[in-house]
């Protein structure tokens, strides 16, 4: 039986703004994949200069991990994005919407210091199949 994802958005809690779920119930799954923080570094070690390019690359790295496990974006159930500054919020949202489309995993965005000063974000995720 295929995995089922059920969005849960309690009517007596704040409603979401953007494409994510307040809670996501997974049933009938067989596998969980925990993806460590994916950084905006290409396989050749280069780091893009702009936030948008870094964001797209970090999402590409998430996709690569998913693909290596035989999964894709639709398998994401929880995403945590760490931003180095609030000023990147709008661009982060734009890229995330482009990547996720209609898929709505649970989501957290945190403004914090990032391990390497070159990196403007990091993305970690949990996927299920």
Summarize the structure.
This protein is an alpha+beta fold and 129 residues long. Helix content is 23%, strand content 30%. Helix 2 (89-100) links the parallel strand 4 (76-83) and strand 5.
Describe this structure in words.
The protein is of the alpha+beta class. It has a domain at 43-129: RutC-like (60s Ribosomal Protein L30, Chain: A). The protein contains two helices and six strands. The chain has helices at residues 51-68, 89-100, and strands at 4-8, 23-27, 32-38, 76-83, 106-111, 121-128. The chain has a four-stranded mixed β-sheet. The chain is globular, with a radius of gyration of 15 Å.
List keywords for this structure.
129 residues; alpha+beta; 60s Ribosomal Protein L30, Chain: A; 23% helix; 30% strand
Note the topology:
Elements (H helix, E strand, L loop, with lengths): L3 E5 L14 E5 L4 E7 L12 H18 L7 E8 L5 H12 L5 E6 L9 E8 L1
Parallel strand pairs: 4-5
Antiparallel strand pairs: 1-2, 3-6, 4-6
**Could you name the ranges where pLDDT drops below 50 across 5 or more consecutive residues?**
none
CATH class descriptor name of one domain: Alpha Beta
- Compute the number of helices: 2
Q: How many strands, which pairing sense, and closed or not: the largest β-sheet?
A: 4 strands, mixed
SS-based class: alpha+beta
CATH fold name of one domain: 60s Ribosomal Protein L30, Chain: A
The span between the termini is 11 Å
Give helix and strand order, one letter per element, not per position.
Answer: EEEHEHEE
Helix percent reads 10-25%
How many individual β-strands? Answer: 6
CATH architecture of one domain: 2-Layer Sandwich
Radius of gyration from the alpha-carbon trace, in angstroms:
15 Å
**CATH homology group of one domain:** RutC-like
């Amino acid at each position: 039986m295929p995995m089922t994802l059920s969005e849960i958005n309690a009517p007596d809690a704040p409603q979401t703004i953007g494409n994510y779920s307040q809670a996501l119930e997974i049933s009938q799954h067989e596998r969980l994949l925990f993806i460590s923080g994916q950084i905006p570094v290409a396989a050749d070690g280069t780091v893009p200069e702009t936030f948008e390019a870094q964001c797209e690359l970090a999402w590409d790295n998430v996709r690569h991990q998913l693909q290596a496990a035989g999964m894709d974006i639709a398998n994401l159930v929880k995403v945590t994005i760490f931003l180095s500054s609030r000023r990147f919020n709008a661009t982060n949202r734009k890229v995330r919407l482009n990547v996720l489309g209609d898929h709505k995993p649970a989501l957290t965005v945190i403004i914090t210091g990032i391990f390497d000063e070159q990196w403007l974000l990091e993305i970690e995720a949990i996927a299920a199949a």
